[in-house]
């Protein structure tokens, strides 16, 4: 979203949130709620009058951030005007995240000793990777894919509240745009397919770009512009 700031003249707020497994998804979502409440009730006090229209709110994110964006679309009231997601996680209890992805990881194996401090639920909660431990903290995701334990790391029970597609009928989503590459081995494209399918079936407004042959983080290439996403944003914001 940073590339469109000057071109489309919107304000970008980048929110920190506490990381699992020291906290669960409920705690993480509370951080999202706090951020949106701050934007809607406090942010204008810091920018001055007539600078921002904080009621015209889009929520966007990629991967785990896309998951939190969809949760905001389900459970924040009043709902954001539009949700924009790039290769989002949508169901930590879905097939992709409950099946070991060793076949995608190849020979890679995570030495659990190298991430012991990050697995400890009693460790201090953090919102960012601390300087000097990037390589080990970043091993957590591959470890999760190996062990197929995302739901446990996020402390998700058997209920459907944190399973996006299963909650849409009851809670609804605002207009939502999703882009997901079909070569993604970090978040299976079935995660997005399911949500889009439910939204289409319920006649909700959804845009979907299913990119062929690319992988996770494809959008970091400076040549990727995602113009369709920005058009969807402007239409609804």
UniProtKB/TrEMBL annotation:
Record carries keyword Hydrolase: yes
Residues in BD-FAE-like domain copies: 5-195
SUPFAM superfamilies hit by this protein: alpha/beta-Hydrolases
Annotated keywords: Hydrolase
Coiled coil: none
Hydrolase found in the keyword field: yes
A Pfam entry, by short name: BD-FAE
GO terms of molecular function: hydrolase activity
Any one Gene Ontology BP term: monocarboxylic acid biosynthetic process
Protein name per Swiss-Prot or TrEMBL: BD-FAE-like domain-containing protein
Organism: Penicillium daleae
